[in-house]
Amino acid sequence: MSLPARKELAPARAGVLCSRPLMRKWAEPTILAIAAILVALHFAGLSRMSVWIDEVVSYACSVGPWLRFHVGETNIPPLYYLLANICLNIRDSEAFLRLPAAVAGALCVPAAYILAGDLGFSRPGRALVALLASLSPWLFLYSQEARSYSLLILFSLLSALAFLRIDRGKRWWFLGGIFLALGLWSQYVIVFVLAAFWAHALGFRREKKVLVGLSLATALALVLFAPWAVYTAGHPPHAVSIKKAWTGDLAAFVYGWFTYFFGFSLGPSIREMRTDGLAAVAREWPWLAVGAVAMVIPMLKIRSALREKGFIFILVCALAPPVIVLALSLFPGFNITCHPRYAAASGIFLVMAWLWLAMKFRARVVRWGLVALMLGLMGVSGFNFFFNRRYYKEDVRSAAGVLKVERKPGEPVYIASGNLGLALGYYWGNDFTPIDPWTDQDTIRLVGKRAWLIVAREWEVSPQPLKARLERDYRLLRDWDFPGVRLLLYERP
Fold this sequence. Notes:
Layout: H1 6-9, H2 21-40, H3 53-62, H4 79-90, H5 94-119, H6 123-134, H7 137-143, H8 149-164, H9 170-184, H10 190-204, H11 208-234, H12 247-262, H13 268-276, H14 278-282, H15 285-296, H16 302-305, H17 309-329, H18 346-358, H19 364-387, H20 396-406, E1 413-415, H21 418-427, E2 433-434, E3 450-456, H22 464-473, E4 475-482, E5 485-491
Parallel strand pairs: 1-2, 1-3
Antiparallel strand pairs: 3-5, 4-5
Helix pairs in contact: 2-6, 3-4, 4-5, 5-6, 5-7, 5-8, 6-18, 8-9, 8-10, 9-11, 10-11, 10-17, 12-13, 15-19, 17-18, 20-21
């Protein structure tokens, strides 16, 4: 059985967003205009926050002569490094390091708009998909981070578009193979999206054209990815010991995936769960309650939506990646952790599934009320991302600026985080003493008249033993409080 025509795919009354013809006429261009303004925010303040450990790795792998990037010892697929190398040769700055991520994040919005049309959303409905995607906390976060996750989301959307059209001719299985290959050259975890396509094809689209087309697209992607696979096999990365998930990590994954989507937290509370437990969640309870309401009410329409093939496809693509990540994180010896970023590709599909359900309510006040609620939650997330210091990345750049001006030669600098130390090396140099989980802080020799201590959010290494010694033998002379980072200067009495 072939994929039904668009009108059969559409959810009940999914296109009835405005009952008056004039309102329907202006709904789509008005919503798209707002979405275009929000897309511009993906480029706003690309150098606003410090780089952090993974971005330092991206810089180290990308900087160099034109088209001469380095893969280092990480063996992460190099497409982002190639694009960043081009940008850094135009201008060496944090903004240009993050520019490929911002461009990919912005392109996700029109890709989601086109995909929504193929799935059966009306013109105003797919404009709403574009609006929600443009305000998505997933895209804000990954569009301003020098990593390949926005590329992963983009190629997942484009691959899904090709998959829906794969029975229309060889052009679409060929494009699907290209998009999947580009996704593989960006992030290995796009195979979780490919698994979703196969699950949907075998479960709901068992036509010969679809299965043959998907087989050809998969084979083409693997052939195009083969050079990197051969290189990786010959240059294995250093062994990394990954602690398998425990109950708290699993709770953080589920909570993180939920909050990334609904937009009332962008990370710090997830980190704080390691030290504060449920108290970290309790601090978010107002947004947690509103997000739960926004999620639960549309679920009342899930039974009727499960009879619609367009919704089934969205749901499979939304749920398969996080389910696979969770399952593999529990598998002994498998080198993956239960982190929401590995399921980043599911974010926009989840938005589509939510809107599909919300638009099934006949009462306009319910439909628009739910949309307004979701936009409000995402708006709060966007405000936090740009203006709330609690949601900033650790501001190592400002701390390094103070050290350059205030530190005297020979004064020791202690930094209570290996991750933070890598970022400090990027901005300042390596003349410091890192304190990692294996450091016996009681054996650190305190010398000199003055000593510096850099403290990050206490989710990785607690500096309290060293801090207690400094407070006993020294007096606190100055204290700089930057987002996520405190710089303390001690002096002997």
